[in-house]
Amino acid sequence: MKTYLVGGAVRDALLGLPVADRAESQEICFVPDDDYAAFLADYTGKTGTPGPIVDATGRVLGEHKGIAAYTVGQRRGLGLAAGTPLYVTGIDAASNTVTVGGREETFSRDLVAGRLNWLLPEKPVFPLAAEVKVRSRAAAVRGKIGPSEGGRVCVTFEEPQMAVTPGQTVAFYRGETVIGGGIIERQGR
Predict the structure, then answer these.
(1) Cα torsion 178, 179, 183, 188: sign
(2) Are both 141 and 175 inside the same structural domain?
């Protein structure tokens, strides 16, 4: 009897997994229709608390359905009518506020990251030049990594990056090799 190694959809179907017939995705496979707000409401029993959608000056433009339904860089589903496209530029959980602005306002020149994990044989020496990725599908861009307070690092990009999002992962590369990464705590402008 031969043994075969199978993966992906074939493996999922053989195991009777409910995701077997779903298309491959970069999203979370167990979230139906990629509706994170509905998933969180079902999972926690809590619905999102509506709050203000504001511009950079603090002017209220509308009301959101709960901050879990939004992400930095998002353009669709804001429920706002404006003369130009608006994007989520910030989310403040403490005030339950979503901030929006023009596309240019979604770009950052730097970020601060914590909860670092280095995959180097020795402790990194700063400043450290590396390629940096802030989204899985984005191309790596050149940047400089330097120390910041509390064991964090500050990453400065050679070119501003769109939708640098607190809570997401940042990865550091040398060529194709991952040398480290961390969690984005805040983005610069």
Answers:
(1) negative
(2) yes
Find where tokens 């359905």 sit: 65
Instruction: Give the three-class secondary structure for 101.
Output: strand
Q: Rounded to whole angstroms, how far apart are CA atoms 72 and 129?
A: 26
Taken in order 32, 34, 37, 43, the sign of the CA dihedral is positive
* pTM for this predicted structure: 0.75
Residue of 97, 112, 92, 88 whose CA lies nearest to 185? 112
Start-to-end CA span in the chain (Å): 61
Same domain, 64 and 115: no
Residue pointed to by tokens 């020149």? 109
Give the 3-state secondary structure of residue 19: coil
Structure tokens at 148: 């910041």
Compute the distance between CA of residue 40 and CA of residue 38 in angstroms, rounded to an integer: 5
d(CA 12, CA 129): 41
Range of the domain at 148: 107-187
Which residue matches tokens 């608006």? Answer: 86
What are phi and psi for residue 149, nearest 5 degrees?
Answer: -65, 150
- Could you tell me the mean pLDDT of each successive run of 10 residues in the chain, 189 residues long? 50 63 59 74 83 97 93 93 93 96 95 97 94 91 96 97 93 95 90
Tell me which of 101, 118, 150 is where a domain ends: 101
pLDDT value of position 3: 45
Same domain, 53 and 66: yes
